[in-house]
Amino acid sequence: MEHNQTYNKMELNTMHQTLIIEGPITARELQSYEFHKDLVAFRPAAQQHQALIEIADLPEGRIIIARSENTVVGYVTYLYPDPLERWSEIKMPDLIELGAIEVIPDFRGASVGKNLLRVSMMDENMEHYIIITTEYYWHWDLKGTGLNVWEYRKVMEKMMNAGSLVYYATDDPEISSHPANCLMARIGKHIPLESVQKFDQLRFMNRFMY
Fold first, then answer.
1. Rounded distance between C-alpha atoms, residue 124 and residue 101, angstroms
2. Helix boundaries (H) for the chain
3. Radius of gyration (Cα) for the chain, nearest Å?
4. The listed CATH number (3.40.630.30, 3.40.50.970, 3.40.50.150, 1.10.1660.10) that belongs to domain 8-203
5. pLDDT at 142 (0 to 100)
6. Is the pTM for the entire model greater than 0.90?
7. Per the omega criterion (within 30 degrees of 0), is the bond before 24 cis?
8. Residue 99 and residue 77 in contact, taking contact as beta carbons nearer than 8 Å
C-alpha cells in the first residue's frame, strides 16, 4: 500500500518555553537537529538518534518530534511491527506500531506526549491504518517518576487516549504475563472489515490451542 504522509505542526506553550511539535519529519531533517542527552529510555541518546533516522528512512516509518529550537526533546515513532513479534505473523500492510514515545524529564507533565499523538493523528492518511502499541511495565520509568505500576499505567492510558488509542484484549503471552501490561489500538475510519478480522485473529492466536 502507498505510505502517504502529510506534515503537520503546532506550538505548545509550557512553563519553560514554547515547543514545536511537528512531523512526520524526514531523516535528513532529523539528522540536522540536536538530540537531547536525556533521551535515554531505550538506549544511549546518540544511538537512539541514529535509530530514529533509520526509521524515518523506512517507507512506512513516521517520526513526530517535539523540539526546543534546534534540540529534539521528545518523539514518537511509527513503523511496521518487528518481524519476530506476533503482530507481523499475518502480513498486514495497513497495520503499524507506535514503537516508542519518549519525552525528557524536564518537560514531563506538560502534555508533550499527548500532543505528539494529537499531531500524529492530524494526518488524514492515518485513517488508513490500524495503529497498535504494546505497553509493558518493565519499559516504564517508575523510578524517575515515583509512580507505582498502576499509576503509571493510568498515565499511559490517558496519553494514548489523546491519540484515540484504546484498550484491546489479547491472549499474547508477554502482555498476559502481567496485569498492568496492555495492548492499545486505533482503527482508522477507512480500514476494511477484512483487516479488522485479521487484527482480531492476531489478538487471539492462542484461542484454539490446548
1. 21
2. 27-32, 45-57, 112-121, 142-145, 149-162, 173-176, 193-203
3. 17
4. 3.40.630.30
5. 86
6. yes
7. yes
8. yes
First and final CA of the chain: distance in angstroms?
36
pLDDT above 90 (res 16)? no
| Contact predicate 98/143, CB 8 Å | no
Contact 48, 63 (CB under 8 A): no
195, three cell numbers: 483487516
158 in helix, strand or coil?
Answer: helix
Q: Which three cell numbers stand for residue 153?
A: 499505567
Residue 210 pLDDT greater than 70, yes or no = no
Q: What CA–CA distances, in Å, run from 195 to 51, 160, 161, 202? A: 29, 22, 22, 11
The C-alpha atoms of residue 151 and residue 47 are separated, in whole angstroms, by 30
One-letter amino acid for residue 75 of the chain:
Y
DSSP 26-48: -HHHHHHSEE-TT--SSS-HHHH
pLDDT at 107 over 60: yes
Query: What pLDDT shows up at residue 207?
Result: 65
Indicate the burial class of 60 (C-beta count within 10 angstroms; 0-12, 13-18, 19 or more).
Answer: middle
Which DSSP state fits 82? P
Residue 156 has pLDDT above 80, yes or no: yes
